[in-house]
Amino acid sequence: EAQVTQNPRYLITVTGKKLTVTCSQNMNHEYMSWYRQDPGLGLRQIYYSMNVEVTDKGDVPEGYKVSRKEKRNFPLILESPSPNQTSLYFCASSRTQNRGANEKLFFGSGTQLSVL
Amino acid sequence: LAKTTQPISMDSYEGQEVNITCSHNNIATNDYITWYQQFPSQGPRFIIQGYKTKVTNEVASLFIPADRKSSTLSLPRVSLSDTAVYYCLVGDVGQPDKLIFGTGTRLQVFP
């Protein structure tokens, strides 16, 4: 089944404790992206990647890191989490980086992160 | 920086047609307009996509005027299960790979 898999689904941590949220897709997609969702603010892009070893900042990259060493994986790293990073996170992927017809995003189920 | 603007919320009753408009004044020339639906605690899912004029699929229709500065998602005969948040998505005119979601429109369908 074609899907984007995020783990964990829920995560509670404390300020300053490094964490990684994993994202994997099995569709051979080139484009991958991370979003955070907060009440009243919709979906905001954190980082995106057009292909392996190519990443770029979205609208809210501060406090986050990503890597794209393999095509299928795009982990989100919080080196020193803070309470303002408490949010619902979504990973997404699409076939290519070309913004054309049929380039739709496939989303994971989300990771609810709480930083105490 | 491209930005999309949508109404924050809309109410409707079952069986009615719902039209949700999205404003995207700085859409990139080659970019398509894509709409997504999101239920609580789930990731958004694709509904419909278009470049210009009108597109229709089994779920919805999408109307795009010639200037492409806005688009309207039309949901015919909504049901309770259409209660969700609807987002339009376009690329940034300067960085088309940087995809910009708006704050979305929360549609509430009543019996």
Strand and helix layout:
The complex is a heterodimer of chains A (116) and B (111).
Chain A: E1 4-7, E2 10-13, E3 19-25, E4 31-38, E5 42-51, E6 54-57, E7 65-66, E8 76-78, E9 87-94, E10 106-107, E11 111-115
Parallel strand pairs in A: 2-11
Antiparallel strand pairs in A: 1-3, 3-8, 4-5, 4-9, 5-6, 7-8, 9-10, 9-11
Chain B: E1 9-13, E2 18-23, E3 33-38, E4 45-50, E5 53-56, E6 61-64, E7 70-75, E8 84-91, E9 99-101, E10 105-110
Parallel strand pairs in B: 1-10
Antiparallel strand pairs in B: 2-7, 3-4, 3-8, 5-6, 6-7, 8-9, 8-10
Short key terms for the protein model shown above:
heterodimer, A: 116 residues, 4-stranded antiparallel beta sheet, 11 strands, B: 111 residues, 6-stranded mixed beta sheet, 10 strands
Name the overall outline of chain B. Answer: globular
Question: In percent, how much strand structure appears in the residues of chain A?
Answer: over 45%
Overall geometry of chain A comes to globular
Number of helices of chain B: 0
Chain-averaged pLDDT of chain B: 89
**Number of strand elements of chain B:** 10
Secondary-structure element order of chain A, as H and E? EEEEEEEEEEE
Task: Please give the largest β-sheet of chain A.
Answer: 7 strands, mixed
The class by helix and strand makeup of chain A works out as mainly beta
Radius of gyration of chain A: 13 Å
